[in-house]
Amino acid sequence: MRTTMRTSRKLLLGGVLTTLLAATIGVGAAAPAGAAQSLRLRYKTSATGATADQVEPWFTLVNDGATAVPLSGVRIRYYFRADSPSQQYRFACSWAVVSCSTVTGTFGTISPGTATADRYLEVGFTSGTLAPGAQTGDLQLRFYRADWQTTRQSDDYSFDAAHTAYGDWAKVTVHQNGALVWGTAPTGAGDPTPTPTPTPPTGNAGVVFDDFTYTGADDPAIAAHKWTVRTNAGGPGVPGASWPKGNVSFPSIATGNQALQLKAVSDGTAGGTQQAEFLHQRKFLEGTYAARVKFADAPVSGPDGDALVETFFTITPLAADLDPDYSEQDFEYLPNGGWGETGSILYTTSWETYRNDPWLAVNVHNEVRASYAGWHDLVLQVSGGQIKYYVDGALFAQHGDIYYPETVQSVNFNLWFISGGLVGSATQRTYVQQVDWFYHAKNEVVAPSEVTGRVGAYRAAATRWVDTVPAP
């Protein structure tokens, strides 16, 4: 959970995100496709203004030939003029008949450029086959500036404001197995081999396991193991609340093991509100994250009813409003509701970015309205453009697209009260959240059942801590 207050959850964007790819192509005129070629592209746009928040080219690819075409060998190029030489762009697939999960998008640079094109968006497919006489159906695509400013499209080679209904369009090119088969590239744009889709890293590249066998919040092994007990002021939660070191402890639990315990306390005032957080250094990205977490529906003492958040999450800090390198993947349990909810609810949320004031959230989330009090095995898999959340071995949510993380993250557990969600009582109340263990396998997708097996093996060998994941 970010260190600023979140007041609402609003899904604003969807789709498939790929990072800017610095491919450079040479000069040379491309000939139009010959009549014998089988693929034909139809185009329309849903954003017709000279400027727009995002460029929205929609395509339908048609197979006019007599043989099936594997889509993995097909690339579509949309040519445009960047707003500045250094401007970066983001790609997203809003919806596709063939499924956005099979659609990729990368950006290339034309050198030297023309008056209407010095960049191109290259759209590809990871799978699928287009049968003779068939079409892909809608590919509802878009791209936008990484700084979220308005972009000019009236000077873009492939843009046509008059195309508000699908029609053949030769200013978008189609390439099959590296050969131009439809359309005409802008003069000087050339016709290089399309950029291959990146392959995600695979295989185990280190693990972290922690059984939380520490003597207390001042144990020097905590820092030696790259954990931090938070004590600095700030969000999330009640403005003015403190984060005392003493709110983190490591008591024995029923199994005989020790657990990380977070404590949150409030008397209904900001000065009397305390929250807790325990976090690892930033060195995590792709792979499997897992923790056994005990959620609670009621305080251990005092009146119930406060809106609070019990968490396990990964995060890259926000460097500035709408920072494109920000990312976050959350398990968040709200036992007493909050954010417009009135009852117990478990969220899994993946973030692309956000702006705090005025509030703008770019995320996607799933939720289940039910009590999750008790122990639960939470598993997060981040691999191959997909983010998967599991609860007790069952798939809870699957995200990807623009929400896939791009930079190294920290691992965090925190317990905090939602601002404005404290009950009207001056009686002190205390809530706790416990974590039995944490496990991470870098660059490896580990099934939930295998995670628990590996943790069991560590415990059988009396191994309390392992960290072979290199620092960034």
From TrEMBL:
All residue ranges annotated as the GH16 domain in the record: 146-446
Recorded superkingdom: Bacteria
Parts of the chain that traverse the membrane: none
UniProt-listed InterPro entries: Beta-glucanase-like (IPR000757), CBM2/CBM3_carb-bd_dom_sf (IPR008965), CBM3 (IPR001956), CBM3_sf (IPR036966), ConA-like_dom_sf (IPR013320)
CBM3 domain span: 35-187
SMART domains linked to this entry: CBM_3
A Pfam family annotated for this UniProt entry: CBM_3
Record-given protein name: Cellulose binding domain-containing protein
